[in-house]
């Protein structure tokens, strides 16, 4: 079976997938809100090792249908390298249905649509992508490494190639002072991107909480739980996405919701309003939130 350089992270929807660590860490690894790969130095797993891991996994799990390529941005690999991995997976797992992975803004801007289409034909079906916010000032403050326009361009390339986008945004990223602006500009960006899947996460910083506050400048105040719920409402109210599957069931969230936007928008807003009117017993306790 695969040998992992831990910790290893995956999206909730990849719970039943074979996780294959093709890269180690994240090539960007500067986002102030993310501490998943801070203890790792970015690297590419040698092909001979990766090949052995695929072979051993195929011997144990020959009926594997889904593979998630870790770590933080496997799409940084060259198209030829990704082709080689996908070809090997296809040959090793006869029942393979889809391959997925994380991507960063720089990854998407670095690959032409034609190359992405080629990868789609080899069963790369979903890319998980962190939008985080549509506020250009906030993107700079958290060192995301891209502007809203650059993210829209990259995401459109993915969609044009026929690969599904599963994007995430982060509630509370701008604190109380930027909450409404963050929500509305994020909705504006998402309306331009039109993702297939959308997940709202909630800011969790662990040991980096104090350094994040300092980086955000004087006067920054972290959201309280109900501030995050109000921000979620603002986001949902301004979304105009077509048949987008929406979730806020990530482990970081205080309130788990699900639906299809914009069809279910009024129901979702109604559920959020009920919680804002009377939150007692409706929010996850802190002991239930974790990564």
What do these coordinates show?
The chain is an alpha/beta fold and 291 residues long. It has a single domain (12-283), classed as pyruvate-formate lyase- activating enzyme (Alpha-Beta Horseshoe). It has ten helices and ten strands. The chain has helices at 47-60, 79-92, 105-109, 113-121, 136-141, 148-160, 179-193, 209-215, 225-238, 265-277, and strands at residues 18-21, 23-24, 43-44, 66-70, 98-103, 124-132, 164-171, 197-202, 244-247, 258-261. The strands form two sheets. Strands 1-4-5-6-7-8-9-10 form an eight-stranded mixed sheet. α1 packs parallel to α2, α7 (179-193) runs parallel beside α9 and α9 runs antiparallel to α10. The chain is globular. The two termini are 24 Å apart. The relative contact order is 0.11.
Task: Spell out the blueprint of helices and strands.
Layout: E1 18-21, E2 23-24, E3 43-44, H1 47-60, E4 66-70, H2 79-92, E5 98-103, H3 105-109, H4 113-121, E6 124-132, H5 136-141, H6 148-160, E7 164-171, H7 179-193, E8 197-202, H8 209-215, H9 225-238, E9 244-247, E10 258-261, H10 265-277
Parallel strand pairs: 1-4, 4-5, 5-6, 6-7, 7-8, 8-9
Antiparallel strand pairs: 2-3, 9-10
Helix pairs in contact: 1-2, 2-4, 6-7, 7-9, 9-10
Brief overview, please?
The protein has 291 residues and is α/β, with parallel strands linked by helices.
Descriptive labels:
291 residues, 38% helix, 8-stranded mixed sheet, alpha/beta, globular, pyruvate-formate lyase- activating enzyme, two-stranded antiparallel sheet, 10 helices
């Amino acid at each position: 079976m695969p040998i992992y350089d831990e910790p290893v992270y995956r999206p909730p929807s990849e719970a039943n997938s074979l996780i294959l660590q093709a890269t180690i860490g994240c090539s960007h690894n500067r986002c102030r809100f993310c501490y998943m790969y801070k203890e790792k130095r970015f690297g590419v797993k040698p092909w001979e090792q990766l090949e052995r891991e695929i072979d051993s996994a195929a011997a144990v799990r020959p009926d594997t249908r889904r593979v998630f390529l870790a770590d933080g941005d496997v799409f940084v690999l060259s198209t030829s390298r990704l082709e080689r991995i996908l070809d090997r997976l296809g040959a090793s797992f006869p029942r393979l249905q889809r391959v997925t992975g994380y991507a960063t803004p720089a990854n998407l801007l670095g690959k032409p649509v034609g190359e992405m289409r080629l990868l789609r034909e080899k069963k790369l079906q979903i890319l998980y992508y962190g939008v985080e916010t549509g506020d250009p000032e906030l993107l700079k403050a958290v060192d995301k490494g891209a502007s809203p326009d650059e993210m829209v361009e990259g995401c459109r390339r993915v969609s044009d190639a026929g690969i599904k986008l599963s994007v995430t945004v982060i509630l509370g990223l701008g604190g109380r002072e930027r909450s409404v602006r963050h929500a509305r500009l994020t909705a504006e960006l998402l309306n331009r991107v039109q993702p297939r899947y959308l997940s709202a996460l909630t800011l969790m910083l662990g040991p980096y909480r104090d350094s994040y506050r300092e980086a955000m400048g004087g006067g920054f105040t972290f959201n309280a739980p109900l501030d995050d719920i109000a921000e979620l409402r603002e986001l949902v109210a301004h979304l105009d996405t077509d048949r987008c599957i929406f979730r806020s069931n990530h482990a970081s969230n205080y309130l788990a919701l699900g639906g299809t936007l914009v069809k279910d928008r009024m129901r979702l807003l109604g559920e959020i309003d009920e919680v804002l009117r009377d939150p007692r017993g409706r929010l996850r306790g802190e002991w239930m939130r974790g990564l």
